[in-house]
Amino acid sequence: xxxxxxxxxxxxxxxxxxxxxxxxxxxxxxxxxxxxxxxxxxxxxxxxxxxxxxxxxxxxxxxxxxxxxxx
Length: 71
Fold this sequence. Notes:
Blueprint: E1 11-16, E2 23-27, E3 33-37, E4 41-42, E5 45-50, E6 54-59, E7 62-67
Antiparallel strand pairs: 1-2, 2-3, 4-5, 5-6, 6-7
């Protein structure tokens, strides 16, 4: 099951909104869900981009990409 979400990681659950006003639903490590937009704080970093099926955020100078699970 390569496409299953890993419950101990931060996971992208969904993306919604118009292309120029995207928002995303993210599941945190502790099981809580948060709605984020570009500029929002996430997992000690800041959301920099939200695409059709992915989200990028920068944490400690490193860009982390989250993708929607497939399958």
